[in-house]
Amino acid sequence: MNNAKFKQDLVDTIPRLRAFARSISGNRDRADDLVQETLAKAIANKDKFTEGTNLTAWLITILRNQYYSVGRKMQREVADPDGEHAASLESKPQQAGHLEMKDFLSALQVLPDDQREALILIGASGFSYEEAADILGVKPGTVKSRVSRARARLEELMSGQESFERSELAVAESAELIQNALSAQP
């Protein structure tokens, strides 16, 4: 079907589309919006229309689907004419999580090697204490102790009780350790 014929056929169906839209929406303005949205979708999806089939039926299907899609969205919306509900919503800044992660990765490098290694084996690699003990050549109780001390020290560092140097090098080293640990999961 050539483009000019397709557009003319669309224009010819507008009265039927408007009548159907008014019958399901019960609102003249909403019906006009539905018809406009339907025609825009039909033009955008012209390649999905099979020539020789009923164009009006195809358009009414698009219109009906659009009507119900919008209806479902509107059911989830909250009426808030004076903006009280919107004012009560809050969105925390996205960058805080990123900065906290960089602090954590820097703090991880402050830990003694044996504590950092035990913590990464348990926390990032997902090994059990027994498996980590086998890997490290120590007893499970030793691994538990190292992990406990590492967590306590990280808590001190992250809460500001103790200061530490934040550096991109430390972040990169910790990120590499964790990446390697994640790829070596049991």
How is this structure best described in words?
The protein has a single domain, classed as Up-down Bundle (Butyryl-CoA Dehydrogenase, subunit A, domain 3). 73% of the residues lie in helices and 0% in strands. The radius of gyration is 31 Å and the shape is elongated. The longest helix has 23 residues, at 3-25. The protein has helices at 3-25, 28-44, 55-76, 84-88, 95-108, 113-123, 129-136, 140-159, 168-183. The chain has nine helices and no strands.
Chain-wise SSE layout:
Elements: H1 3-25, H2 28-44, H3 55-76, H4 84-88, H5 95-108, H6 113-123, H7 129-136, H8 140-159, H9 168-183
GO molecular function: DNA binding; sigma factor activity
Family: Belongs to the sigma-70 factor family. ECF subfamily.
Protein name: RNA polymerase sigma factor
Uncertain residue segments: none
> Looking at this structure, what is the CATH superfamily?
PhyR, sigma-like (SL) domain
Outline, from the CA principal axes?
elongated
CATH architecture: Up-down Bundle
CATH topology, anyone? Butyryl-CoA Dehydrogenase, subunit A, domain 3
Distance between the termini: 59 Å
Share of residues in helices:
over 70%
Order of helices and strands: HHHHHHHHH
Counting DSSP E segments of at least 2 residues, the number of strands comes to 0
Q: Could you say how many structural domains there are in total?
A: 1
Separate helix tally: 9
User: What class do helices, strands and sheet pairing give?
Assistant: mainly alpha
CATH class: Mainly Alpha
The biggest beta sheet reads: none
Q: Please give the radius of gyration in angstroms.
A: 31 Å
| Beta content | under 5%
Indicate the mean pLDDT.
83
GO molecular function: DNA binding; sigma factor activity
Domain RNA polymerase sigma-70 region: 14-73
Family: Belongs to the sigma-70 factor family. ECF subfamily.
Organism: Roseibium alexandrii (strain DSM 17067 / NCIMB 14079 / DFL-11) (Labrenzia alexandrii)
